[in-house]
C-alpha cells in the first residue's frame, strides 16, 4: 500500500525529535527548505507540519516558525490540592516566587462572584509569578476571604501561604472545585511572564474550601501552554 508523502515526512521528523537529533525549543527549517530537503510541494510539507502540531511535537509561532516542544512537560496534578512550594520540591528544578501585588481590595467581578462576597467586602489579593529554570512561566492570582485569613505578608507569600495557614493559623484546608480552560494571554501575563511567543494560557481556576465547607479562596493559576501537562488518576466505578 502506497504511503502518502506527508506521512513519510511526519514519521521522519518524529524520529529526529524522539532520537534527540532535533531538540526541544529548536526551530524547524522553513517550509521552503523542507520542500527542497524532501523534494516535495509546500502543501505536502504543511500537512506534515500540521500533523506534528496536532500530536504535540511542535508549536507554530508567528514570526518565529515551527518550534519543537518539550514533551517531558512538568506534571501538574489535577485532583490533588498542593501548594507550589510542595510541588517545586518534586520538580527537581530551580524555582523562585516573585510577589507583584499584595493587599486588601474590592475583588474583580469574577472573583467576587466565585467567593460570594458582599459588594463592599474586601479580600486579600495576591499576584505572584513563578520562575522555573530561569523562566517566569506561571502567574498565580489568589483571592482570600479576610475573615478566614486576617493577615498576609510578602514574606509569607514568597514562601508558602498554605504552610502559614495550616501551620500558624491552624486552618484545615480540605478540597477544591477546579476548572481548566484555555484563554488568550492578558496584559498581566505579558507583563510578568516569559511567554516565548505563545498567545494563550492554560488556566486552572480553583474554589478552595475548608474542612467545615467554608469557601475561603478563589485562585487562577495561569500556565504557559508549552511547559505543562495536567495529570489525573481515574478509576471506573461499576
TrEMBL record:
Domain of life: Bacteria
Residue span(s) of domain HTH gntR-type: 3-71
Entry's Gene Ontology BP terms: negative regulation of DNA-templated transcription
InterPro entries from the UniProt entry: Bact_HTH_transcr_reg, Chorismate_lyase_/UTRA_dom_sf, TreR, Tscrpt_reg_HTH_GntR, UTRA, WH-like_DNA-bd_sf, WH_DNA-bd_sf
Keyword Transcription regulation set for record: yes
Molecular function terms from GO: DNA binding; DNA-binding transcription factor activity
TM spans (from-to): none
Alphabetized SMART domains for the sequence: HTH_GNTR, UTRA
Keywords per UniProt: DNA-binding, Repressor, Transcription, Transcription regulation
Stored Pfam families: GntR (PF00392), UTRA (PF07702)
PROSITE patterns for this protein: HTH_GNTR (PS50949)
Protein name, UniProt field: Trehalose operon repressor
Species in which this protein is naturally found: Bacillus velezensis (strain DSM 23117 / BGSC 10A6 / LMG 26770 / FZB42) (Bacillus amyloliquefaciens subsp. plantarum)
Amino acid at each position: 500500500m502506497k504511503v502518502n508523502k506527508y506521512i513519510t515526512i511526519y514519521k521522519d521528523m518524529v524520529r529526529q525529535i524522539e532520537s534527540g537529533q532535533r531538540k526541544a525549543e529548536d526551530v524547524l527549517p522553513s517550509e521552503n527548505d523542507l520542500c527542497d530537503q524532501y523534494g516535495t510541494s509546500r502543501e505536502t510539507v504543511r500537512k506534515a507540519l500540521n500533523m506534528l502540531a496536532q500530536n504535540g511535537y511542535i508549536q507554530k509561532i508567528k514570526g518565529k516558525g515551527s518550534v519543537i516542544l518539550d514533551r517531558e512537560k512538568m506534571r501538574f496534578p489535577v485532583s490533588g490540592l498542593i501548594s507550589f512550594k510542595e510541588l517545586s520540591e518534586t520538580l527537581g528544578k530551580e524555582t523562585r516566587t516573585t510577589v507583584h501585588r499584595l493587599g486588601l481590595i474590592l475583588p474583580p467581578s469574577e472573583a467576587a462572584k466565585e467567593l460570594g462576597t458582599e459588594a463592599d467586602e474586601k479580600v486579600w489579593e495576591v499576584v505572584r509569578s513563578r520562575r522555573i529554570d530561569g523562566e517566569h512561566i506561571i502567574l498565580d492570582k489568589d483571592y482570600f476571604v479576610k475573615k478566614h485569613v486576617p493577615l498576609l505578608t510578602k514574606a509569607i507569600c514568597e514562601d508558602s501561604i498554605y504552610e502559614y495557614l495550616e501551620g500558624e493559623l491552624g486552618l484545615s484546608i480540605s478540597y477544591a472545585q477546579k476548572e481548566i480552560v484555555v484563554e488568550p494571554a492578558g496584559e498581566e501575563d505579558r507583563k510578568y511572564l516569559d511567554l516565548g511567543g505563545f498567545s494563550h494560557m492554560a488556566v486552572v481556576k480553583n474554589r478552595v474550601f475548608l474542612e467545615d465547607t467554608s469557601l475561603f479562596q478563589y485562585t487562577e493559576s495561569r500556565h504557559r501552554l508549552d511547559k505543562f501537562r495536567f495529570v489525573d488518576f481515574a478509576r471506573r466505578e461499576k
